[in-house]
Specification:
The complex is a heterodimer of chains A (209) and B (168).
Chain A lengths: L1 H18 L3 H39 L1 H16 L8 H14 L3 H17 L9 H11 L7 H9 L9 H22 L22
Chain B lengths: L1 H15 L4 H35 L2 H8 L1 H6 L7 H9 L1 H15 L4 H11 L4 H11 L8 H24 L2
Helix pairs in contact in B: 2-8, 3-5, 5-6, 6-7, 7-9
Classes of the chains: A mainly alpha (209), B mainly alpha (168).
């Protein structure tokens, strides 16, 4: 899937660029984006190291276990394949709670850590597990309570009451998260999305572990 | 406010439980570097593709193609750009909000709806590329479909909720 999207974006981009006579700009954009990507990661690296350091303390002090226990009923239902005390649970909980607080920069390291831990539970290393997809669906539905950067943006644009968007934002994001969970849980049962190392065919692998 | 509380709280709790906080921190930080290095390739791949797609004008064409769908759901036309851009690029979506604020005013329905959309959806393509790339997953199964459905639910909720909240 990602192969197709990626190729289409690039090939179509260069084709349309050629037609529009912007080939030079497009090439420059490609080179600049590549440069920017590495700069972004290097910018992220320090923050990431810091947050994962803090997470490690929370893990060793048992704090993650306490929070996990509170969220356990919901998390077990959402991620039936992940053992309760697996580090993946802790990382996912931290990712979701930092996202809720609107700390996007802190959420990313926890999210990446969660994927790493979920991958350890994965039997087919090149194929996403149900837990991964559910986790990312929740992530992509955005669970932020206070959209701080958007409020800042509106303020900069001269809005007088930028916080008025908070109410509808919380409702909309709640709906989109519910939609994400329902979509992930429903689609995972479809034969076309079944885990199957061979690609096509009917043999369905059980996702129980 | 939340960040200082979290950091101090976690360290104090660690001290109470007699954790060697400094050693634990550095050990976790080490993992942070390894993970960061590992995501560089997928970061580069995705940002280049999105950069090429946007700069060439292909993104504008795609927006045109989406017009009929937008009419079907009764979404205001000035929000089409937001619909396309949001799953692809966070900064791109922010620039659209700024543009709407400039053209229609920061308190206009269009601008506020776009802001609510911003808060109820994510840069889905980017998130999937980065997170799956970091553990070299190639078959993403229903991840893209689920993410885009979540975005769509967020968009439609934003449109209808904003209409209820801001029309008066």
């Amino acid at each position: 899937m990602i192969n197709i999207i990626w190729s289409v974006l690039i090939i179509l981009g260069f084709l349309v660029g050629a037609v529009n006579g912007r080939l030079q700009d497009v090439t420059a954009a490609a080179i600049n984006s590549a440069k920017m990507a590495v700069e972004l990661v290097f910018g992220l690296m320090g923050v990431m190291a810091m947050w994962l350091g803090i997470l490690k303390i929370a893990e060793e002090s048992g704090l993650i276990k306490i929070i996990s226990r509170l969220l356990k009923p919901a998390m077990i239902r959402l991620f039936p394949e992940v053992p309760e005390n697996h580090p993946a649970m802790g990382a996912m909980i931290m990712n979701i709670s930092t996202n809720i607080l609107g700390l996007g920069n802190a959420a990313t390291p926890f999210g990446l850590k969660a994927m790493e831990e979920l991958q350890k539970l994965n039997k087919h290393k090149d194929t996403a597990t149900n837990s991964m997809v559910t986790f990312l669906a929740i992530n992509t539905s955005s669970v932020t309570l206070i959209p701080a950067s958007t409020i800042a943006l509106l303020t900069a644009a001269g809005a007088i009451n930028p916080t008025e968007i908070v109410g509808p934002s919380i409702m909309a994001t709640t709906l989109s998260t519910i939609g994400a969970i329902i979509a992930a849980k429903t689609l995972q049962r479809l034969p076309r999305y079944s885990i199957n190392p061979r690609g096509k065919g009917k043999a369905r692998c059980s996702s129980r572990s | 406010m939340a960040i200082p509380l979290m950091i101090v709280g976690i360290i104090i709790h660690g001290l109470q439980k007699r954790v060697k906080v400094y050693e634990a921190f550095t050990e976790g930080a080490k993992e942070g570097f390894v993970t960061a290095i590992r995501i560089i390739p997928s970061f580069v791949a995705m940002l280049v593709a999105i950069g090429v797609f946007r700069e060439s004008g292909a993104l504008d064409l795609l927006m045109g193609a989406f017009r009929p769908l937008v009419r079907l759901f009764n979404i205001p036309e000035e929000l089409v750009a937001m619909l396309i851009m949001r799953p692809l690029s966070g900064s791109g979506a922010q620039s659209i909000i700024s543009e709407l604020a400039h053209n229609y005013g920061p308190e206009s329905l269009a601008c506020r709806t776009a802001a609510v959309m911003m808060g109820s959806s994510e840069t889905t393509l980017y998130v999937l590329a980065i997170y799956f790339g970091s553990v070299s997953i190639k078959k993403q199964r229903h991840a893209l479909a689920s993410g885009l459905i979540a975005d769509l639910v967020g968009f439609l909720s934003a449109v209808y909720l904003s209409r209820i909240f801001f029309s008066f």
